């Protein structure tokens, strides 16, 4: 296949370059093959300001991919859909369900904001695509669909539940990743890797038929990972041998440093405003 040029701009992250807004959330602007893809939307506050300062017009998006249904990835959905009359949305049906994080016995609402759910419900059917399995967006670009949970050491990364009393665990089955095939390997964009970073990368390799990983960019949700999980994740990554690793959002400084010890200069932390060209 002919080499595909890819540009990924981080619009929203927990850290930001000078002059941009930081926010607990994630959003990427991806340009490839004549398409403009918005991957997640952060909480919605930082997105329009950072996009404007970076010279990106959100109303030019062709595709909006939602990695999963947490508020810090879907808060800007209503804004995007209000201004774009052509963007098509790809997400798992589970993105709209109620969900909670319970910390110190206190439940915290984690679901997609009601405004975002309402905006999705108003979309015409031709512009809304429920993704329940691996889906191709174009030649050489696809969404994983739900990711197989194969490793024993990876979990969702937190105390996540479907009810405020913590009786029903949330396995976050809607967690998905976007992958793009290039002549030099795969570009993999992830939201939080609630299915596990290693599980995600292995599934992308199976789906694409390519074992070369040019880059993995996004949140790895290793903030609460214990030493054993960090060691096993780093060892698996060393085996997968990605050229570039850009940890963002929910990865955590401790995990980022653990990955750097194993992978060295291949690890480069992300922030709002960072542009990656492949």
Detail the topology: elements first, then pairings:
Elements: E1 6-12, E2 27-32, E3 35-39, H1 46-53, E4 63-65, H2 71-74, H3 77-83, E5 88-91, E6 100-103, E7 106-109, H4 114-121, E8 128-130, E9 135-138, E10 141-143, E11 160-161, E12 177-182, E13 185-190, H5 197-208, E14 213-219, H6 227-240, E15 244-248, H7 253-263, E16 275-277
Parallel strand pairs: 3-4, 4-5, 5-8, 13-14, 14-15
Antiparallel strand pairs: 1-2, 1-16, 2-3, 6-7, 6-11, 9-10, 10-12, 12-13
Helix pairs in contact: 3-4, 5-6, 6-7
Which parts are unreliable, with pLDDT below 50 for 5 consecutive residues or more?
none
Number of helices: 7
Give the spatial strand order of the biggest sheet.
Answer: 8-5-4-3-2-1-16
Round the Cα radius of gyration to an integer and report it: 17 Å
Distance between the termini: 16 Å
CATH class: Alpha Beta
Q: What is the fold named in CATH at topology level? A: Metallo-beta-lactamase, Chain A
**Helices and strands, in N-to-C order?**
EEEHEHHEEEHEEEEEEHEHEHE
Query: Largest sheet, described in full?
Result: 7 strands, mixed
Strand tally is 16
Query: Based on CA inertia axes, which overall geometry fits?
Result: globular
Oligomer: single chain
Describe the protein in words:
With 278 residues, this protein is an alpha/beta fold. It has one domain: Ribonuclease Z/Hydroxyacylglutathione hydrolase-like (Metallo-beta-lactamase, Chain A, 4-Layer Sandwich), CATH 3.60.15. It is built from 7 helices and 16 strands. The strands form 3 sheets. A 7-stranded mixed β-sheet has the order 8-5-4-3-2-1-16. Strands 9-10-12-13-14-15 form a 6-stranded mixed β-sheet, with helices on one face. The chain has a 3-stranded antiparallel β-sheet with strand order 7-6-11, with no helix packed on it.
């Amino acid at each position: 296949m002919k080499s595909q040029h890819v540009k990924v701009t981080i619009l929203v992250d927990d850290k930001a370059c000078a002059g941009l807004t930081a926010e607990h959330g994630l959003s990427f602007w991806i340009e490839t093959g004549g398409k403009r893809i918005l991957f997640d939307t952060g909480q919605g506050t930082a997105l329009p300001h950072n996009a404007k300062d970076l010279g990106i017009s959100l109303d030019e998006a062709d595709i909006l991919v939602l990695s999963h249904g947490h508020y810090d990835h879907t808060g800007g959905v209503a804004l995007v859909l209000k201004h774009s009359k052509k963007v098509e949305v790809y997400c798992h049906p589970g993105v709209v369900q109620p969900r909670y994080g319970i910390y110190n016995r206190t439940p915290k609402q984690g679901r997609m904001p009601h405004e975002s759910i309402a905006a999705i419900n108003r979309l015409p059917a031709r512009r809304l695509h429920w993704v329940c399995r691996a889906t191709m967006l174009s030649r050489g670009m696809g969404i994983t669909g739900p990711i197989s949970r194969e490793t024993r050491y990876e979990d969702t990364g937190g105390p996540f539940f479907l009810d405020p009393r913590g009786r029903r665990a949330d396995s976050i089955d809607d967690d998905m990743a976007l992958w793009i095939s290039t002549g030099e390997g795969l570009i993999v964009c992830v939201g939080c890797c609630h299915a596990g970073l290693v599980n995600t990368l292995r599934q992308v390799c199976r789906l694409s038929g390519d074992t070369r990983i040019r880059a993995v960019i996004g949140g790895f949700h290793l903030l609460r990972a214990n030493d054993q999980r960090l060691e096993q994740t780093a060892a698996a990554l060393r085996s997968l041998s990605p050229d570039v690793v850009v940890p963002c959002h929910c990865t955590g400084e401790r995990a980022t440093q653990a990955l750097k010890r194993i992978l060295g200069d291949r690890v480069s932390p992300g922030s709002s405003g960072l542009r990656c060209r492949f």
